[in-house]
Amino acid sequence: MLHIENLSHVYPNGTRALDSVSLQVPPGMFGLLGPNGAGKSSLMRSIATLQTPTSGTIRFGDIDVLADPEALRRTLGYLPQDFGVYPRVSAYEMLDHIAVLKGYAASGERRTVVEALLNQVNLWPVRHKALAGFSGGMRQRFGIAQALIGQPRLVIVDEPTAGLDPEESNRFLNLLAEIAESTVVILSTHIVQDVANLCPRTAMLVGGKIVRVGAPLDLIGEL
Ligand code: ADP
Ligand code: ADP
């Protein structure tokens, strides 16, 4: 369970991106819906410990996230909105490399982890292809595989369907739903359809404030 209380963030230029946000996120898939500029990325980056909010608290299980960001990072998978890839490296090589960084020292164990992830995200057939040649959908599925190394208990995905065609979007969202069977998955998006079928609980963020939490179809009037 993720508990956020009275989280506010004011950027140095005076922009108040988050205004006393309080939110409880249970296990499973949770949607964060809001128009551009609502504060979604600011909230995702705060939870992911990439920026320190001006005030408030974030707890995940027994981790006090702002006091001990390292503890959260050990159990976090984060797929940012625009993540870069090394173009000439293959999917297999990159995942193997990240597995090393995450502490999988033994090559046999790494092989097991990397092969399982490549199968899970359906990239096994293209595992030796350079990332530069990946389509948008393949890239996002690679991104989620990358985020899942180390078995995170909290997975944050920021605007993942931008630029994907409807079929790839659905494929990606269904993959998230599978992942959410065993973790907390927060999906941030400005697209109602992204959360409509998969996120029974969705929070609506507007102007840095949570205006409602409920089933996506009940929130549409707020957009
Ligand atoms: P969203 O992800 O919902 O589009 P953001 O969190 O990116 O919203 O932005 C919320 C508000 O904060 C916007 O008004 C945006 O322009 C502003 N903002 C975001 N990042 C910064 C920054 N680094 N400095 C100043 N203002 C920012
Ligand atoms: P998003 O849709 O994720 O909010 P943005 O286009 O708002 O993306 O922001 C892209 C990058 O620019 C982010 O790193 C954000 O922090 C920064 N940014 C956004 N708005 C501002 C702003 N008004 N001043 C400075 N940096 C900003």
UniProtKB/TrEMBL annotation:
Record has Lipid metabolism as a keyword: no
Q: Which domain of life is it from?
A: Bacteria
Q: Where is the ABC transporter domain?
A: 2-223
Coiled-coil segments on the chain, per record: none
Keywords attached to this Swiss-Prot or TrEMBL record, sorted alphabetically, are: ATP-binding, Nucleotide-binding, Transport
Any one GO molecular-function label of the UniProt entry: ATP binding
Q: What is the similarity comment for this entry?
A: Belongs to the ABC transporter superfamily.
Q: Protein name, please? A: ABC transporter ATP-binding protein
Originating organism: Steroidobacter flavus
